[in-house]
Structures are given as structure tokens and as C-alpha cells.
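We both want to read C-alpha cells more fluently, so let's practise on a single case. Once you have written the record down, we can walk along the chain together.
***
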Amino acid sequence: MSEGPAGETVDAFHRGRFHVLQPKGGGHRSGMDAMILAALVDAQGAVSVADLGAGAGAAGLAVASRLPAAHVLLVERSPLMADYARRTLALAENAAFADRVRVLEADVTLNGRARVAAGLEDEVHDHVILNPPFNDAADRRTPDGLKAEAHAMSGDLFERWLKTAGAILKPGGQLSLIARPPSIAEIIAACGRRFGGLEITPLHPRPGENATRILVTAIKGSRARLALRAPIVMHGEDGHRFTAFADDLNNGRASYARR
């Protein structure tokens, strides 16, 4: 991490292969969750990826950095965070893939013609990734309005986000998301008839500890049954060092393919 302008940092990801400009004290700051989410895109050749609720763009840029033929759309509602994403793309460190990434300032929850008019077109993407606000609004209070918006969900959030994901994905396209375990029932319900073949992987901080995240992938139009996959353990018992596989996922050296 290096200091940018006042109140901002320039953070290196994938061992310095790309950088993200982020607010230092406010808003949502991306980290490991975004990198693990990006690892769910396992693709060869040209692929179109939409990152919904992209913030400054960390997850989408991780996809573009790792996959040389990926074209990525960063979708962000907040004008402030969309500006961070645009300025992130302008960093010299990201020049190698900046022409394959674009930023769309739009509300993910728009419907029908309003959604299309905002730039979220029907059935154009091979993958949709999302790291939605996954805290219940009553769970945490923060004086930072931007951070609260980024982390707190309300009402039928998963239903609205997955409706848009289903609309913009091609038939057979893949939905990928990271969330907290208490959201599992809502996610399954929101997938409904839009998505099938759900694969759910719990992420455990250390051996013997409860899962703190779940990874979910699903296929548009599939009727395959749900599969609960073997857990991923992020750290060893003796400290904060990543396990070898978690380190590869976090640093763009591996993807986490569907079975």
C-alpha cells in the first residue's frame, strides 16, 4: 500500500500486477474477498465479465489481470466509487489491461427498459460476479454513510441483484458471488428458476473454526441439483499465513473451477 492524494491509498494486488485507488478512511475497501471472488471466473479465450457493485474495481480488475482475453464491465451506483474506478483504470500500473475494462455508473436494481437504458443490456455477458452488501442493516452501525451503504443490505437485495444478473447473462452463463453464511437461504431463494446447478463452498479461517464466508456459483437456465463442496481453509493453525491454495487464489495464480 502506498499513499495517494490526501485520504486515498494506492493498493497493490496479485503481488503488484495491478493497483487500486481506494478511499483511506471511508467507503468500502476491497481486499481478500474481492480476490477470491475473482478466482471463481475460470475461463479460456475471450470472455465477457460484469462485476456488479464493483466499488473501485478490485474484483473485476483481478479478472482482467489474470485472464488476458477477458473484457470486464465494472458496474457501480455510487458516483464517488465509480470515479475511484475510473481513476484506478488511469493508473500507469494498470495500462496492460485498461483497454479491456470499462466503468458503468448504474444502479444494479433497475428493471426492464430502465436497466437496458442505463447500459445493462440483456444476455451479453458470460460471467457475472458480485460481492453484494451482506450485513443486515441492523447488525452494524457506522457514521460513514458510504461504508454503511456498501456493507448493509435491506429488503429483497439478493432477489433484485440476481434478477439483474440473470437478465444480463447469456444462457448458460455463470453467476459467482461471495457472501456470509447466514445469507445462504436468501441466495438459494433468489436463484429460483433463473439459476441452477448451485455449488456452495464454505470458507473457514482456520481448521476447526466456523465458516465466515461462502462462495456460490450457479448457471443460468441449469436444472442441475445443488452441490455442497469441500471447504476451503484459508490459514494454518499457527497464525495468519495463507494455506498454499488460498495464497494462489488470493494472488491470481489459480482459479476455483466448478466441478
Observations:
- The longest strand covers residues 169-179.
- Confidence is low (pLDDT under 50) at residues 135-153.
